TrEMBL record:
Annotated keywords: ATP-binding, Isoprene biosynthesis, Kinase, Nucleotide-binding, Transferase
UniProt-listed NCBIfam families: ispE, PRK03188.1
Species this chain originates from: Streptomyces sulfonofaciens
Catalytic residue positions: 10, 137
Catalytic function, reaction form: 4-CDP-2-C-methyl-D-erythritol + ATP = 4-CDP-2-C-methyl-D-erythritol 2-phosphate + ADP + H(+)
Domain GHMP kinase C-terminal: residue ranges: 206-277
GO biological process, one term: isopentenyl diphosphate biosynthetic process, methylerythritol 4-phosphate pathway
UniProt xrefs under InterPro entries: GHMP_kinase_C_dom, GHMP_kinase_C_sf, GHMP_kinase_N_dom, IspE, Ribosomal_Su5_D2-typ_SF, Ribsml_uS5_D2-typ_fold_subgr
Described function: Catalyzes the phosphorylation of the position 2 hydroxy group of 4-diphosphocytidyl-2C-methyl-D-erythritol.
MF annotations from Gene Ontology: 4-(cytidine 5'-diphospho)-2-C-methyl-D-erythritol kinase activity; ATP binding
Domain GHMP kinase N-terminal: 67-145
Lineage of the species this protein comes from: Bacteria, Bacillati, Actinomycetota, Actinomycetes, Kitasatosporales
Protein name: 4-diphosphocytidyl-2-C-methyl-D-erythritol kinase
A Pfam match: GHMP_kinases_N
Amino acid sequence: MTVTVRVPAKVNVQLAVGAVRPDGFHDLANVFLAVGLYDEVTVAPADELRVTCSGPGADQVPLDRSNLAARAALALANRTGRVPHVHLHIAKDIPVAGGMAGGSADGAGALLACDALWGTGATRAELLELAAALGSDVPFSLVGGAALGTGRGERLRELPVGGAFHWVFALADGGLSTPAVYREFDRLAAGRDEPVPPPVASGALLTALRDGDPTALAATLGNDLQPAALSLYPSLADTLATGTKAGALAALVSGSGPTTAFLTADATAARTVADALLDSGTCRAARVAQAPAPGATVLG
Ligand code: C5P
């Protein structure tokens, strides 16, 4: 028997970052939107815990117990008294180390797939609690749609979304390490006179999401990690400018980057922006995707 789970990528339409906490994390007001780029995690019984990976960037994915999918299987087995002898296969389509929660998606996918394989009977609340222990973005990968994440991003309130949003994602060469981008955020904050304000979700942004209004959403998008990502990866500024010139309503770094995200008016505009980005040579690839997308889903 095997179980396959499909899990979406995310873009942060607002990522408000507070000062660093004593535990090293940052308090966030993090508005997640799941987008239609997916990884698939397949689990099957095996003699020992094993992880394999295929697809773009698969060679950069660790296959040991640092992989969030492996850690998810171990955590669920530990919680429910099972032996974690499974083969987890990750079919990647979400950019690796791209700021689109690909690793978190694999953790959420493995959690749900192992839960279905083993028939643990764990409640949704228990799965969400295990997900939060695996990483700040893992609960959202389970839930999908749109949600406001507070705390370090793991405490979720689901948000209504009134229509489809059309996005383009420009993939960059190489990746950015999330901890390194947060460290750069701290370094830039230390150089300023004012303290970092507490993170607050934008009411106008939540309204734009609820109304399904891309122009209003474009006016309110924001990512406090963007200056840090640009500081570590300056050429992303050229990618952002290219997409804007080609007609995107707004352009921003996705999460901790280096993927850049472009909100467009409709599917036709998205194709135009994707073509312009590819032609410009300022990115490695451009992908079109719609949002919102459902959270982790068992396919069979
Ligand atoms: O929770 P997760 O393992 O995904 O976080 C990866 C890293 O990102 C953390 O070790 C920390 O450096 C940084 N981070 C943070 N504040 C958050 C979330 C992540 O500083 N709210």
